[in-house]
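Q: For a teaching session next week I want to show students how multiple molecules come together into a single three-dimensional assembly. I've collected the sequence lines for a complex. Could you give me the predicted C-alpha cells for the whole thing so I can convert them for display?
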Amino acid sequence: MKKNRQDSMQLSRLSSVLAASALLWCWQAPAQEQEQWLTLPGDQRPGAEPMRFGAGLIGQMIFLEHCATCHKNEAPASGAGEKVGPSLPTLQQYPPERIYDALTNGKMKALAAHLPDDQRRQISEWLASRPIGSLDAGDSAKMSNRCATNPPFDPSKGSAWNGWGAALDNARFQSAEQARLTPAEVPKLKLAWAFGIPNGVETYSQPTVVAGRVFFGTDNGYVYSVDAKTGCVYWSYYAEAGVRTAPVVAPIKGHGATKYALYLGDLRGFAQAIDAHTGKALWKTRVTDLPLSKVTGTPAVHDGRVYLGISSAESVSAASPNYECCTFRGAVLALDANTGKVLWQTYMIPEAPAPRGVAGNGTRLFGPAGASVWNSPTVDAKRGKLYVGTGNAYTQPAARRSDSIVALELATGKVAWSHQDIAGDAWIAGCPAQSKPSSNCPEKLGPDWDFGGASMIQRKLPDGRDVIIGASKGGYVVAVDPDKQGALVWRTKLGDQPAGPNGLIVFGGSADAENAYYALQSGAIASVKLATGEHRWLTPLQPPADRPKRIGQSAATSTIPGVVFSGGWDGVLRAASASDGRVVWEFDTSREFSTVNGVPGKGGSMGAPGATIVDGMLFVGSGYIGTGNGIPGNVLIAFSVGN
Ligand code: HEC
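A: Of course. Below is the structure for the complete assembly, covering every listed component.
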C-alpha cells in the first residue's frame, strides 16, 4: 500500500510539472526529445532569449506572474497603513501544505481560483523548497531497510570523501590508499545497491562518505545516513527544506556526548548542524534573508569554523517585467561550528543596492546586484585564506567582483585580493541581447560566464609553487598565484567551440598532482597540465542512441590515480583513463532500479555533483533537472568491484 502511494505521489509530481509546462510555456519541442525551452508567457520583449530553465523553476515563474505584485521581496512593515501580503522571504518559511491550503481553501482562494490545482501545488512546493507530503513519506522510521544496530561512529578511522572536494583543496582527488580502486579494477565496477528517495525528483546533494557511512541531503527535505556496504539506513533528519549541499563531517563541542556533527546548508537559506551519529538537531542559523537566496555550495569546515557562500535565483525572477530587479549580492560567511553564531559576513559587492530608476512599465529598479557564490569555499590554512568564485552581475554596470576569483582572510573575511576574469558581464534570464535602457534588462546582455559553480582548486606545481585554479562557464580555466595577490599564471580555453547558453564548464573539474580534468557542456572531457595549462587530450562523448539530444556534461568530475569519472545529462556515468582520455567503463543510470529501501527508484541526468570514491566503492546520485531541463531521478547508487 505504502509503496503504491509513494509511487503515485512521485508520478503526480512529475506529471504535474509537465502539465504546467504545457499549459504555460511555449514549447519548442524537437520531435524526438522532450526538451523544453521556456519563454515567459506573453513576453513583451521581442527577440528575448528563450529561457533555458527546467521544470524545477516553473513554480517560481507562476508565482511571479500571479502573486509577485502583492508579495514583494520587501513588504512595508505592518501598521504602515497599507494592507499588504507577507513578503516573499516570509512566504518561503511556510510549510508547503499551509500555502496550498491558503490557495485552495483559505485567504488566497479567490486570488488563486483561476489557477489549475497543479499550479497551486507547484507554487507551494517551490516557495517551501520541498514537496507536499514529504514529512510523512521521507521518514526512515518507515523504511524496510533500517540498520539492525547503530554502532559508534569514529571518523578518525577509515577512509573518507568528506564534503565537496574530498579535501580542503577542493581538488576532488582521492588517493590510491583511500580509493582502494585501481585503474585495472574500474572496468569491473558493478551495481552494489541503490537507495530510492521518497518523493524525490532531483538527487542533487553529493554523497559524503566517512567511516563506512554515506550522508546525503535530498530534495524532499530529509538528510539520510546509510551504510556504505549495504545501504541500510541509520537515520533520517528532517531539514524542512531541500538540501543541495554535500554534508560535511567535523568535530563539534558543547553538545553533551555528541562528538561529530554533520554541517550543511539548505534551500531556505539556513546552515544546520546535526549529530552525525544519531541525526539529532544541534543548531540551525538563518544565514541569508537576501531575495530568493539560498545555500547551494557545500560548506567548508576547518578549525572550528563553517565557511559558506550565498547564491540566489534572482536573475531568473528578473525576467518578469513585474520584478523589481535586483537587490541580491553574493556573500561569504564564517560561522562558529559549535554554536552556529555568525562570525563574519562579506558581500562580494561592497555597495548596498540602491534605486537606479524605473522601468518603462513603472517597475522600480535597484542595483548593483549579482556575484552569487554557488561553489564550495577552498581553505588555504597555510596562508590563512579562503578562495571562492563569483557569478555574473545582474545589473549594469557589472560589479568589480563579478566573474572573479576572490581571496578572503580566514580570520576576518576581509577581501585580500581578487582576479576578475570577465568585466562587464551583466546577465538576466529571458532578456533580449539588446534592450531599452528603461527595461529591467541590462542594455548589453552577458555573456553569463560565471566563476560561480566550479570550486577553486588549490594545487602545488612540480616547481613547488602553489596555484589556485578557477573555471568559468565561458570554458576558460585560469590559474592564479596566491603569493602574488592572484597574479595570472596561465589562462586557457577548453573545447573546440564557444560556450553555449548553458555554459561550457559549470560545476567544475578535479586534479591530480600534475593535471586537471574538466567536463564540458559541449559533450566532452578534457585534460590540461597544471604547470602550463597546455591541453593534453579531449574525449568527445556520445549519448546513447535513444536520447541523442542529451549531449553534455555539467557535473563536476572526480579523480583517482589513473582514472577520471564524469556523469552526463544523458544519465551515463563514465570513467576515462587519466593518461589518454580513453573511456574505460560506463554505466547508464537513466533506468529503473530496485532499491534497498523499497521505494521505487529511477535514475536520470547527472548535472551538478560528481561521484565520490572510497574504499573500493563509488557513490553517485542520479536525477537532475537544473537549468538544462535534465532527466528527473531519485536514486543514490553505490558501485563496487563485486566478487
Ligand atoms: C492582490 C494582492 C494579492 C495577490 C495577487 C496574492 N496575494 Fe497572497 N496575500 C495577500 C494579502 C493582503 C495577504 C494577507 C491576508 C491576511 O492576512 O488577511 C496574503 C496572504 C497570503 C498567504 C498567507 C495566508 C495565511 O493563511 O496566512 C499566502 C500563503 C499567500 N498570500 C500566497 C499567495 C500566493 C501563492 C499568491 C499567488 C497565487 C498570492 N498570495 C496572491 C495579497 C495577495
